[in-house]
Fold:
Amino acid sequence: MGRWSGYLSWNPSEAGTTVEIIWSTVDPDGAGPCPLVTDTAFVFVLEAAIADAAGPYEVCGTDPVTLNATTNGTGEWTGGAGIFADNADPGTTYTPAASELGTTVTLTWNTFDPDGAGPSLGLRPADLTISIPATAIAEARTVCAATVPRISV
Structure:
């Protein structure tokens, strides 16, 4: 039987600091003669990884779409069958593959451990809807001036 005292929850502003917690026990039977016993633990508070892919995104066809992740460390984009201009840049562009037309793909920004002390990793996916562009095909025709041409669409 015992109890914790000191810090029992962490504030993000405490990242990079050490906090102290103390475990205290009482006499197990409450009748004595055992004294109170305490032990101290020091906890190093690591910075949490921040990852937000900031979607959803939309694009028509295979035009490049600008992505804009929020992060507090280095990281990389993953997902899709298309091409990232620079997968390590949170503000890169993604060019969809032709095979992705008419689909929704999931792109994920992965933030690596921002302070390097481990084990923090953040990831947050975003959907990209890739619409099929409209097409128009017009054929060249030769007609006489007095004739009304037949044109079909």
Summary: DSSP finds no helices and twelve strands in the chain. The chain has a mean pLDDT of 85. The chain has two domains: 2-44, 51-131. The longest strand covers residues 122-131.
